[in-house]
Amino acid sequence: MLGNLLIISAVSMGGLGAALSVFLAFADKKLKVEEDPRIEALTGILPNTNCGGCGYPGCRMLAEALLKGTAPSNSCVAGGNDIAKELAKYLGVEAKEHKRMLAVVLCRGGSAEAERRATYRGDMTCTAADITGGDKSCSYGCLGYGECVDACKYDAMAMDGNGLPVVFYDKCVGCGACARACPRDIIEMHPEDHKLFVYCMNRDKGAHAKKVCKVSCIACGLCVKDCPVAGGIEIKDNLAVVNYALAPQNNESTKRCPTRCIFSDIEPQVTKASFYASRQKS
């Protein structure tokens, strides 16, 4: 009797499973949403690095936005002008010029310049160190644990011997991953024609700023006075700020800076090859 019950149960379960399989196969066929083949074609044109620089989580999502017309043809920062032209050609729209963006690390307070307040023994990431303040006295500067370097998918950054990240401008595609990874927002994305930068984010008053870092902005205002265009540089919250719509991108405003925190010596000239060549010499 028990054996018969087991056989009946097994047959019933098997029949139910088979019926459900047939139903699911039918439902999959009837309810399946056919994807526009153009999405696959656009995804094939894109670099498929999924860097997020376009503002979308991945290249496929950008392809969908391009097809809908909600994203311009020059949205792919990693692809540059070449990809922008290919996308525009495929979509049958006018090609828009891609303006190259570059990452700029706005801090020069490395191990040699920044005062140490403690020994940090926590998790060696910038995010973790930022919670306790890390080991530097400056609460605005680079923490030095390289989270931005780890975030870069293009091998366009490295930590130097002074505990600061360096951007290789022959490799940087302007995706902004490093800037998003920095918990202190000291990395900004700028058009490559921006040359003049204040390499400091410290908003403390001058005396304290100078005490915690040798190369901090002390809000002395000399750059403001020396700027040939009124309003080209201003002091805001104890920090010199460049107005890129007005300020000439040269060293006219920087010659009297007592801490050399503002200049236009064009760090973008650093390349991956030159960086590692200099390290081998040292």
Task: List the SSEs and their pairings.
Layout: H1 2-31, H2 37-45, H3 59-68, H4 80-91, E1 101-105, H5 126-132, H6 147-151, E2 157-159, E3 165-167, H7 177-181, E4 187-191, E5 197-198, H8 206-212, H9 222-226, E6 233-236, E7 239-242, E8 262-263, H10 272-281
Antiparallel strand pairs: 1-4, 2-3, 5-8, 6-7
Overall description:
With 282 residues, this protein is an alpha+beta fold. The chain folds into 3 domains: 37-91, Electron transport complex subunit B, putative Fe-S cluster (3-methyladenine DNA Glycosylase II, Chain A, domain 3); 101-193 and 268-282, Alpha-Beta Plaits; 196-265, 2-Layer Sandwich (Alpha-Beta Plaits). Helices cover 35% and strands 10% of the residues. The strands form 4 sheets. The chain has a two-stranded antiparallel sheet. The longest helix is centred in the N-terminal third of the chain and has 30 residues, at 2-31. The chain is extended, with a radius of gyration of 27 Å.
